[in-house]
Amino acid sequence: MYRVEDEESLTIRMPLSLIELFLDMEQSDVQTAIASSRFNGMVRLKRDKLSIAGSLVETFFSETIGMIIDELVSILKHERCSDVSAIMMAGGFSEADTLQYAIKKQFQSLEVFIPTDVSLSVLKGAVIYGHNPNVVSSRVCYYTYGVNVARKFNPSIHDPRRKFFRDDGEYCKDTFDVLFEIDEEVHIGQTKSIYARDTFFSKARQIHRYDPYKWQFMVSTKKDPFYTTDEGCMEHGSIIVFPPNVMWPKIVNSQILLKIAGTELVGTCVDKETMTEKSVRFEFLPSINKNQEKKGWFDPFYLDI
Known about the structure:
Blueprint: E1 10-13, H1 16-26, H2 30-35, E2 43-46, E3 49-52, H3 54-76, E4 86-88, H4 97-106, E5 111-113, H5 121-131, E6 138-140, E7 144-152, E8 163-166, E9 169-180, E10 185-187, E11 191-199, H6 203-206, E12 213-220, E13 233-241, E14 251-261, E15 264-271, E16 277-283
Parallel strand pairs: 4-5
Antiparallel strand pairs: 1-3, 2-3, 6-10, 7-9, 7-12, 8-9, 11-14, 12-13, 14-15, 15-16
Helix pairs in contact: 3-4
């Protein structure tokens, strides 16, 4: 691994086939291309050895290290981290002296520990967890978790466009009933639930006795979302429950549960009359903010030489 204190250049071997391929594609040899590029003086090719100046090598890591530093700064600002006195580095990239140097320079008031065989620490942790999942007894919610429900319509707070009718009055659809909040510490096996009641007495409601229920388990990047359609909200999993014996009874009582199950969540719907259950499993951490447009930082097709 390249060391930040090294002043000499980094030398790597260039396969002859790659040099020939470059010549065929660019109609120019590598030395000429380097000499006419912004890397002239920092990159040299001698026979099959490519030498890269130490100052240039450091820039290979700068964006990634900057993002790591920014993330750590953000984490340490949280009230949960007010008493943090040390940072332990783990994983293969932690072997890079460039990263170690940047972490120690940025967080001089904290002790920085780098364990032996740092590149194997993640693998060892996974093996230990695989043999004994209870070694991780609690987690902190990175998102807010809840259920998409209908609430009694309140004209002072609810959007009239979301209003619909049931036997016992007006309701507002697509409201977010929070079960676990963002930054909340949760324990393995911990369960929270809500109760739901529906009736089919009126003529208008009778036609819906044949419709299945869809219970949506939601996640949000906000602490207290109001509607399930708010920015940062998305469906994380759902349960579709079909009526027993073709149609629902005139009164339906259900319990919707969400259980912390290690690296997973378990959502369950219980029919309180028949006590039948239906469950679904999904990941504790959803992929809610994927950026499909982001290109690789070192994509050779975007390398300007």
